[in-house]
Amino acid sequence: MANIDEPIYLACRRALGLDGSSEISGILSNVQDIEALTEHVINVVRTKMREQNAIRDTTTFVRPFVELFMDSTNAPRMYTINKLLKKMVEFHSSLAKPFAEGLLQHPRMNFTLPALIWNSAMDLLQFLVRFPDYKGIRDIFKQLLEKVQMLMSHTPLQDIEKVFKFYTLVALIMNPDNNLQLSYFIQNEIKQTLPWGKPENPYPPCFSSLILKFIDSFRPTAQLVSITGRDMLYPIVGYSNYASILWRLHYVKLKFHQTAPLPFDRAQVQPQTELFCYVIKQLNSRDLAFSLVGIARNVKQRITAIEESLADLLIWNMFETNKIQDFEGQLHLWTVTAHIVLVYVQNVCITLSGILNTINLKVASFPGPVYGIGRDWLMWLIGQMLCHVLNKNHVKSAWPDYLVLLDLIRILYPDNQALPEPDYRDFQSVVSIAAASNWYFLTTRVIPAIAASTQQNSLPQHQTPNALYVHVEALKSFEDRKLSSIDDYRFYICWNLVGNDPKLNSPYMDTLFKVYVLNTSQSIPASHMSHNVYGPSEGIPYRSLDAISAHVKCLIARQYYSDIISKNLFNPAQWSMVSPGGVESFARLLAYPEVEQDRLKELLNLTDTIISKNWFVGAHLLAELLTFRLHRIPTSIRAQLLQQFSGILASPSHAGHPQLHCAIQNLLLNLILQFNCTDLYNQVPKLIDSKMLQSVFTKESEEINKVFILCIARSFIVTGSESMPVPWCTDFLTHIMQITPHGWSASTLETMPTFMAEWYRAHPINDIYRDIRARVDDDYKKLTNSASLANEQEIVKHFSQPTNTTCLCVFLKLTIEDRPLRSYINTFYEIFKNLLTRSMNGHYRTLAEYILREITLQQNHSQTFMQKYADAVVLMATRYNIIQLDRLLLILFLRPLEESKTPYVHILFYFMINSNTLSEIIKDFGNIARSIPCDIWSMKNFHEKFHCEYVKKNNERFFMEGFIKDYLQSVSFEE
């Protein structure tokens, strides 16, 4: 050998007599001769190793010694070499791993080796494994497990002793008391190298007990690091996005992510198809479903797991529908499913053709054909989204995408007899003819268009299935007649077949608008105190909207927005064109997810325009739409809406419109409460970075600010991060405190996250209302002791000062003490007129504090005393229209009251709703609500029968309207 290590090996061979000078035989004189020879060989090798000082290539160095070991055929030589190798490892411990790997990787190292060599090798390996580090032992153990794989299920009798020696070596490493290897790494190597342990593929019998016992020792650890019963703890759709990591699944296998090689329960390692389907089949589940599989919504990778789950949902619906006899139940099931599927297929990573192909494969594997109404409903659902999905940019027109649907129709409709033509006066006709509509639309609209775009001269011929022949012929006759009146559902069936052609869509659109939007020939009862509104009062029926496809719904909404809202919204002379029926139709369209997503950004831009022009009728309409009709507002848009509508609350120009203030306040509260914990946790830092806080949180919105802070506190608690304060939170609290100084009661601080409670305790505020009773008494005396008209201007000036907010308190005190108001009517009229020039939030808070201090500091809380205060507050709201009850109650319930005083607010509220005036209003509304049938959405005269009748009896009362009506009839009040 040419390398520097060669002299050591040659010296070893010479000492052993293997260079030809002598030879060690198996018949030496006695044991002393063996020991002497062994000691001599060891001394020679030790001397050479010291002279060489370093070994450059250990693998090359150990190879000849391993060969020497494997070639030893007699016991004396094996004994000597075995002891020599052990001594060499003691000299250089770095040789332990190369020697062990050299032995295990030797081609002849298997159970067919002679017992002498095998047993000596096992003895040597037991010695060697005590020297390497954890990584070295891990590599050696992996090779040992590969030898385990060589064992047969039945070990031959002559190999029992060899297997036992091998078993002893493996057990030595696996024994945690020996500290040769981390048990976690051993468990990992067993899992990767021996994918066995199942009933159909057990471990070798001789090692089964050892391995299974070792694996079972990790079961407590597996239970400790896993969530018990996670497969049965289903997430709450819409509220569990922040905790989706607890249910994180593999995007293909749908298994929980178990990175640790631990013996988890079987339920923890099986595909969680049931859990995923539970999420998929619910509305608004898209974000959670994508979060579960760890995929971003805009990813271009196809997610087959979601496609298969949607296919399973549709197949389950088909069979479930056949069990539902009630048509309303069938419609509800498939309408909800259509919304769910449409939301998913609008994403790049999910295709309708992928879902249909999965359905094809599964239905084709059924033992028999699928009959019943379930297949018709499936075709109706596909027809709902077919044209809409095909028009999305991410869907490329290709033959296989459409042939899949044609194949599915052939599989679902194998009937030899043609299906009868349905009754088109019934909505069921839309469902019954859906399969023929899809077939006709593909073969006459889509496939020819693809052929034209790809310049193909010959079109493939698709023979109409026998079952659909009558239906397809009926559709041809409908197109020839060009239906232009809404007599029955044939109008909507034909419209669904038009596609994208504007010329073909125009007649249908004009007809629909004349009936439900623009028909000005009929007048409806006045629903407003100042002017009549003309036009239809009935919106497009929900049955009609369900009959038309998603594509047509989007066309109608787009046409209504461009032709009616954009042109007439800011023109008071043309406002009558925006009829109640048109508004209701647009609101109903927004309830469909495809329309909502399509129109949401335009509504956001419209809000900007309305607010910039201070057009409060439009703002009120938008606030109602955003509050009650839109349910899937993205987080970013929700933050922009907060910014836009907060500006209206801060503006004093709407002070005379109490219902507008109520609508916007409800909208802001809904927008804040719709933030889930993760959205809120992530959105506030963005608000801080984008400098939006100044416009979202103003001096006039203390209650909105406090609600937002409560939601942030809740998000810290729910996400389990209350013990980890973040810098942005303290910055946010500091900013809000500078805008609207506020505090919390001790009972509220106890429920807040610790760092937030400590922050508030470290930043107390001065009680600016501590002398409120004295100030009110002083102003009350100034008013009541002034009888001359010369003093009236001074009184009005005094109460109209920006720093004076006691006028509502004085009015309340006059009402409670039954003082005659007529003597002070002109004075209060002038004071209240001045209030319209600025926001009244400060006056409301002063009134709330005054009421709280009056009822909490009173010694005798008798029923008469509480009823007197409650009646006075209700009188100011319902008769004089000076205050709004909902606005006052929100402030009352958010004031920082101690726990012992909080019940007084609830007691006051109890007496208020039981007062004669308010209880009568509640009773009237209750009677109307009870008289409204369950199918209110299908009524044609709801606006006249219920809404207008209620508005006539309880019409909107503007600020001071009742006050003027009772005492100042000669004063004209303009809204």
From TrEMBL:
GO CC, one annotated term: transcription regulator complex
Annotated compartments: Nucleus
Family: Belongs to the Mediator complex subunit 23 family.
GO terms classed as biological process: positive regulation of gene expression; regulation of transcription by RNA polymerase II
Pfam name, any one: Med23
Name recorded for this polypeptide: Mediator of RNA polymerase II transcription subunit 23
Native source organism of the sequence: Rotaria sordida
Assigned keywords, A-Z: Nucleus, Transcription, Transcription regulation
